[in-house]
Amino acid sequence: MTDLKQLGSFLDPILAVPFRGKTYQIAAVDAETGLRLQKLVSAGVRTALDGQIDPETIELVNDADEKGFYETLLGPVYDELLADGASFPALKFIGQTALMWHAQDFEMAETFWKAEGKAPEPNRAQRRTATRTSTAAATTTRKPASATGTTTRKATASRAGTGTKSSGTGTR
Known about the structure:
By secondary structure, this protein is mostly helical. The chain has a domain at 33-121. Helix content is 49%, strand content 7%. It has helices spanning 31-50, 55-66, 69-74, 76-83, 88-103, 106-114, 124-132, 157-160; strands spanning 14-19, 22-27. Strands 1-2 form a two-stranded antiparallel sheet. The radius of gyration is 32 Å and the shape is extended.
């Protein structure tokens, strides 16, 4: 039988956030808060994809607002940032980074931080896929059979029996 080793500090992580020459130490949220944040992020993704907000999503957002969303995300760092004179955009950005970390993982938070909150540019493979994939509905318009625009001449019954010459020599 193999015994599991004692779990390390990776389960009680700290997110170190540098701002104005100081590094703020954001602690992981408790399990209940983390699960609520994951639901909130999932609801946001679902709403973005569906374009509709259901009552459960509205309740999640209201709960987040009522409980001091940024205070929840940042813990004691919230008060530190306010005491250090951080602007609201700075508080919001650091809070959003903490949300990415709490609800997803460090890599997601790091990507968000490095992109300064902007959506990352798609890589070459993503751009190529985007140009090949069409989300438009199928069309009923037929495509031309020839890309050069040339067509073949079709004989008609009315021309075949008129007695006209088919060649310059006069033979049929």
